[in-house]
Specification:
The protein has one domain: TIM Barrel. It contains ten helices and ten strands. The strands form two sheets. The chain has an eight-stranded parallel β-barrel, surrounded by four helices.
Length: 279
């Protein structure tokens, strides 16, 4: 397995983030490409060549492109036409950066396949999975707002060879209390990328609120529900989790995602040091 960094976690911008990742001697970076300097509409053909060369010159590869559009993912039919079209642009950008994995959240998948939202999400995933596959890429769904069993039910139903999974073990724990080790085996045929993140669950939050299914109430807070913590300090059972990834033959990226903390570079370095005992 290889170690990567979600470059945006540095808060330095694209070029300096790439240089910082290279300084830390990791194998690759995940890039956020929804807004700002790496948004598809801001990346001319010339800038794509420059970005690709910068990454190569620093001895890195792009482990994945994050194309998370938020706003409920693909759960609302009246929003999906524009979202699907824009996501296809992100897929094209990823390919121009020599990357073949695009990650995103898709909204909360209902446990009951007869729920109207299930078919809405499935239709968007089918179109995007097939689009990615035709171009040699994988559209990878990030775990979190539903259990691995529920997500697998959706992906099996969609049945597109271009669909994959970005497995985030901390999201599984913090959102649903799911077991990330069992999730590896449940989703084994789909896993193409992972996030290295840790966290603690104190009590279940309202995922319909958390993932944009309904408006966020003014008096709602998740501070007492869960907390992201440095790798090895949370409820992710790392020894068993890494062993499970090895058992299914996963040899891709463990990409560090640190979404809180006052000193991101320090936290990322600690995460690299933690992961080195496994890779």
């Amino acid at each position: 397995m290889k170690i990567g960094i979600l470059a945006d976690c540095f808060g330095l911008g694209f070029e300096e983030g790439i240089k910082k990742a290279a300084e830390m001697k990791v194998d690759g970076v995940q890039l956020y490409a929804v807004e700002g300097e790496l948004a598809p509409e801001n990346m001319s053909a010339e800038k794509r060549v420059w970005a690709r060369n910068l990454i190569k010159e620093n001895g890195l590869v792009v482990s994945a492109i994050c194309g998370d559009l938020g706003d409920g993912g693909f759960a609302f039919a009246d929003r999906n036409e524009g979202k699907v079209a824009y996501t296809k642009q992100i897929v094209d950008l990823a390919l121009d950066l020599d990357c073949r994995i695009i990650t995103t959240h898709i909204g909360v998948v209902p446990e009951d396949p007869s729920h109207p939202r299930f078919e809405v999400i499935a239709k968007a995933l089918k179109e995007l999975g097939d689009y990615a596959y035709e171009r040699g890429a994988r559209f990878a769904i990030e775990t979190g707002p539903e259990t691995a069993v529920t997500l697998c039910k959706m992906l099996d139903y969609v049945n597109s060879p271009g669909i994959g999974v970005n497995l985030d073990p901390a999201n599984l724990i913090m959102s649903t209390g799911d077991d990330p080790v069992a999730a590896v085996h449940t989703l084994k045929k789909y896993i193409v990328h992972t996030h290295a993140k840790d966290g603690n669950l104190y009590k279940l939050s309202d995922l319909e609120i958390s993932y944009g299914m309904v408006p966020w109430p003014e008096d709602y807070s998740e501070d007492d529900c869960y907390a992201e913590v440095p790798l090895g300090e949370g409820q992710v059972p790392w020894d068993n989790y890494i062993a499970a990834l090895r058992e299914i033959g996963f040899d891709g990226f463990l990409t560090i995602e640190r979404e809180c903390g006052d000193d991101p570079a320090r936290d990322i370095q600690l995460a690299i040091d933690f992961l080195k005992k496994y890779v």
